[in-house]
Design a protein that fits this description.
By secondary structure, the chain is of the alpha/beta class. Helices cover 38% and strands 29% of the residues. Bound molecules: adenosine-5'-triphosphate. The site of adenosine-5'-triphosphate has 11 residues, from strand 2 and helix 1. This is Methionine ABC transporter ATP-binding protein.
Length: 342
């Protein structure tokens, strides 16, 4: 298990050509990945995620701030010292980066050979790794005979070969279809829970974060704009960037256009209730409406799982006499976070 700390880390790239200007890829990011946690960094293209990951394994050098791995400040390390650090860190990639001319077993064996593991020990370790990722019967296959999901399993087995304490995942499921992506994410969860390996992953997909991460950092323009437990960050987004990610995967309020369409179909009062991990009790909400003789239909939204906790927004149409509905709204507001849609 490995702990990662970034303290005000920055990475500037010098200008290219005479007319070019300097690029600040990472701009003063402070981030702590606790030992044994799965931490996701989410951001749109160009936010600085890949650069951040490469700063952690020393493939890029910070131009400001400090990078600390297990209490060891690696910021000023020589290339030789960084190689030793990298040997304790596994990495997987969106495009898998496997050797196509080698078999599955040879791909997994490669880092063992490079690290000087005696030949006699390698076969057993390769078998163990392939069993862990569910590919024991594919040892002699060539890479081109595998599906995308199987290729990423090989990538994971290879990354685990030298027993790293930290796994870096660079858009590991972005090239996969949703079902395969979920299987690979489940495998990564097992890497974390059964082998105790800390995982730092970067992604532009909200579902990836929601499914496996405990903590998340949202990046924009090289900066960490939000950070915290997945549930806290996504159930209460503070920036437009986070709100945009949330709207791709979690139930939201209807957009302005959708609200106009809803208005045409529904004549009653429209309200949105937010359910935040037990903060509002659905039976109480519906009972409150029934007690006041107010009819209800759900017109938009849903309840879902975020970081293992429930979160949702339901837009309801309340049907009844004007005053009756007003009283029901006042009563509901006692039990739930409620917004009357204008
Ligand atoms: N070697 C480099 N030289 C100059 N600029 C770079 C270099 N690497 C990255 N950049 C710039 O730094 C910024 C952040 O890039 P980075 O690849 O880290 O973002 P990202 O969030 O990973 O995006 P993507 O998912 O598209 O790779 C971009 O503006 C990019 O053009």
């Amino acid at each position: 298990m490995t702990r990662v700390e970034l303290h005000s880390v920055g990475k500037r790239y010098p200008a290219r050509g005479r007319s070019g200007s300097e690029t600040t890829a990472v701009d003063g990011v402070t981030l702590e990945v606790a030992s044994g946690e799965i931490h996701a960094v989410i951001g749109y293209s160009g936010a600085g995620k890949s650069t951040l990951l490469r700063l952690v394994n020393g493939l890029e050098r910070a131009t400001s701030g400090r990078v600390i791995i297990d209490g060891e400040d690696i910021t000023g390390y020589s290339e030789g010292q960084l190689r030793a650090v990298r040997s304790r860190i596994g990495m997987i990639f969106q495009q898998f980066n496997l050797f196509h001319s080698k078999t599955v077993a040879k791909n997994v064996e490669y880092p063992l050979a490079v690290s000087g593991t005696p030949r006699a020990e390698r076969a057993g370790r390769v078998r163990e790794l392939l069993e862990f990722v569910g590919l024991a019967d594919h040892a002699d296959f060539h890479i081109e005979q595998l599906s995308g999901g199987q290729k990423q399993r090989v990538g994971i087995a290879r990354a685990l070969a030298t027993n790293p304490g930290l796994l870096l995942a660079d858009e590991a499921t972005s090239a996969l279809d949703p079902d395969t992506s979920r299987e690979v994410l489940q495998l990564l969860s097992r890497v974390n829970s059964e082998l105790g390996i800390t995982i730092l992953l970067i992604t532009h997909e909200m579902d990836v974060v929601r499914e496996i991460a405990q903590r998340v950092t949202v990046m924009e323009g090289g900066r960490a704009v939000e950070q915290g437990e997945v549930f806290e960050v996504f159930s209460n987004p503070q920036t437009d960037t986070t709100r945009r990610f949330v709207s791709t995967a979690l139930p939201t309020e209807p957009s302005a256009t959708h609200l106009r369409e809803l208005r045409e179909k529904h004549r009653g009062k429209l309200v949105t209730l937010t359910f935040r991990d037990g903060s509002a009790d659905q039976p109480v909400v519906f009972q409150t409406l029934a007690d006041r003789g107010v009819g209800v239909s759900i017109v938009h939204g849903g309840i879902t799982d975020v970081g293992g906790r429930s979160f949702g927004k339901l837009t309801l149409e309340l049907i009844g006499e004007g005053l009756q509905v007003e009283h029901a709204i006042a009563a509901l507001a006692q039990h739930a976070e409620l917004e009357v849609l204008a």
